[in-house]
Amino acid sequence: MELAQLKMVRAVAQTGSVAQAAVHLHCVPSNITTRIKQLESELGTPLFIRAGRGLAISAAGEIFLEYCERILALVDESKRAVDANAIPRGTLRIGAVESSASGRLPPLLAEYHRRYPDVSLELVTGAWGELLDDLQHHRLDVALVAAGNKRAKLEHSVVYSERLVLIASASSGPIRSAEDLAGRTLLVWPPGCPYRAALENWVKPHAFKPAIASYASWGTIIGCVSAGIGVALAPEGILARYEQAYQLASYRFEELQAVENLLFWHKDTQRHLARDAFAGLLRETFGQKHASPKTCNNVVMDSE
Known about the structure:
3 domains, 22% strand, elongated, disordered C terminus
């Protein structure tokens, strides 16, 4: 069993295709097919099964893939650990929900690139559940999400809390309370979004059931709000990005509590200079006083 074979298994699992995996690994497809067959023979079980024109990972393959990801992550960490003159370099894979990716992150990423030009940044956006799944399986180095449940092997800290703002078209009537939303359409993200939950819970005690339209894009939601289709609840960072380009009226209510934005990382990855530098920049920017990957890892090391 060789590291190259583990990388091939991971690439085929991620792409569902030997041909696509070959492009990713810069080798010929026949090499991947041969090496995986050799590995399957060594393990005594198939790792993939045919699924139409592609490949799907088998039940045994799913189990083996978890070990592949852990082994490959440890190999990367071991290289960083023995580099006495290490500076942040390599690839930093960041996952973020769109509200963070569109609102707060762009100036931070620009500053990070200025300070650490040897780091190649990769930003992936998605729902918080998907991002945490990717982090658990070492497909991401950090994830920045608005709210999120505890996950095995993951640690997190609060980066910042963000006020929620109710937005409507500037030409619509004033909104003084939740009762003024009667007869209006709520423009929200699909189920699972903390902003959607906050808005639905705000109107729930009142004697009306508003129409709901779901869109998985802040640009679409803001555009529809500006056109007078309905109202939405957005974090202040999103409002700051769009309010200059659209005619919007904004309203703040004490009942709409701020949402915590959290940074998650995998606790098994003890040393990752590019990740720790990113966490440090977040602390510097937002005055974060909570735990971070570096401080948590120092605690672990001191206790051994």
